[in-house]
Amino acid sequence: MELIKVKDYNEMSKRACSFIIEKVNNMEKPVLGLATGSTPEGLYQNLIEKYQKQEVTFDHVQTFNLDEYVGLKKDDPNSYDYYMNEKLFKHIGIPREQTHLPSGDAADLSQEALQYESLIQEAGNIDVQILGLGLNGHIGFNEPGTQFSSRTHIVQLDESTRNANARFFPTIEDVPKQAITMGIDTIMQSKMIVLLVSGEKKANALSQLIDGEVTEAFPASILQTHSNVMIIADQAACSKL
Ligand code: GLP
């Protein structure tokens, strides 16, 4: 794993943006894996600015998001579909049919998980996967204890994750209890992974990810075994290294 230490959130976002643009401009049919949460918002804002300055286009790009809440409709402001559209897709001229998220409101969720997995494989797997880091070491919505061999699946969300994400919902009761997420092995099939980490509250998790043992009890630790991982982390997140 390569660790790039940057000053702050803005620098992390800019660094990630330059990296993605370089890939998108130099690849014929790039497949990007995208994440939600607060961490990648600055990256998406930077990508929009670069698109507006005509430094990049996305018509040849396909995207796959990591995860989605179960039970929320696509137009629910808390769905990840809505988030991606508002914070990125609708501003960068990417044909919506080239963007993919698992459907959290599918009638048959197991079938949806299988189909999502097949779509990723048909696209030739993900070239660059953007990841955030959960406080408990989750990646996507793969909570501690998830098998490293997992593929796209339905998960029960940890109370700690529901609490961490409650800030986006009117009350904690409104936070879904389940999600559909790429599995750990799905993520590990990505040719390259860019993990973004910002803020002091992530410092323990980042230290465990880099220096801890590889264990299903801390899902992100599997990244130590991937051959092409770049971590872009700010000073505050690096404070426990
Ligand atoms: C969420 C998402 C993850 C995200 C993580 C960190 O629950 N499912 O994909 O990376 O938690 O979120 P944040 O960036 O808001 O700290």
Automatic annotation (TrEMBL):
GO cellular component: cytoplasm
Keyword Hydrolase appears in the UniProt entry: yes
Domain of life of the source: Bacteria
InterPro entries the UniProt entry points to: Glc/Gal-6P_isomerase, Glucosamine6P_isomerase, Glucosamine6P_isomerase_CS, NagB/RpiA_transferase-like
Class in the EC hierarchy, top level: hydrolase
Catalytic activity: alpha-D-glucosamine 6-phosphate + H2O = beta-D-fructose 6-phosphate + NH4(+)
UniProt EC number: 3.5.99.6
GO biological process, one term: carbohydrate metabolic process
Alphabetical keyword list: Carbohydrate metabolism, Hydrolase
One Pfam family, short name: Glucosamine_iso
UniProt cross-references to Gene3D superfamilies, sorted A to Z: 3.40.50.1360
Lipid biosynthesis in keyword set: no
Annotated catalytic residues: 67 (proton acceptor), 136 (for ring-opening step), 138 (proton acceptor), 143 (for ring-opening step)
CDD domains reported in the protein's UniProt record: GlcN6P_deaminase (cd01399)
One term of GO molecular function: identical protein binding
Residue ranges of domain Glucosamine/galactosamine-6-phosphate isomerase in the record: 10-228
Pathway(s) per entry: Amino-sugar metabolism; N-acetylneuraminate degradation; D-fructose 6-phosphate from N-acetylneuraminate: step 5/5
Functional description taken from the UniProt entry: Catalyzes the reversible isomerization-deamination of glucosamine 6-phosphate (GlcN6P) to form fructose 6-phosphate (Fru6P) and ammonium ion.
UniProt protein name: Glucosamine-6-phosphate deaminase
Lineage: Bacteria, Bacillati, Bacillota, Bacilli, Bacillales
